[in-house]
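Researcher: Please predict.
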Amino acid sequence: DTADGFFSSRPRERILEIMRDSRVGPMGVIVIVCVLLFKLTLLTAVPPAARWWVLLMTPFAGRCALLINMAVIPYARPEGGLGTIFYSSRFRLQLAWAFVLLTVIGWLAAGPTGVFVGLTAFAFSIIFAFYVKYKIGGSTGDTLGAACELTELIPAMVYLVSVSGGLMKI
């Protein structure tokens, strides 16, 4: 839904309308297929010796992206929606925990490379959150899901770029 809305080139209100529609449009299908293929390609390109920690960091980074997005931008719909049940006033503290846990888990899993992966996932999540705020004024359940899925690409991508000599070897 996020892809359908964001790639529609419409104003904020129309984007939110498109995202509220439960049907998947063509852009949504294209993005889902591309993200899944990209995940598969990245994970198969990671050497087996490093794959375990990349697989550990992948869902962890994605779930931390949810906390980060909820901490830095407000909910987009004034009338509320399904995503509002996950919002609370304590997300600033959870933002700090997400940062600490991403770096600590990264360090324990892979040393300095793992920390770099965690920090990159954290930075990407913040950048994506502010893009969402710019585009529709805040977050929704759909954009939280998109943040999670896109941030899950970061660990394998950063590993391949920083350690294995880049994405061109894929």
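Model: The mean pLDDT is 89.
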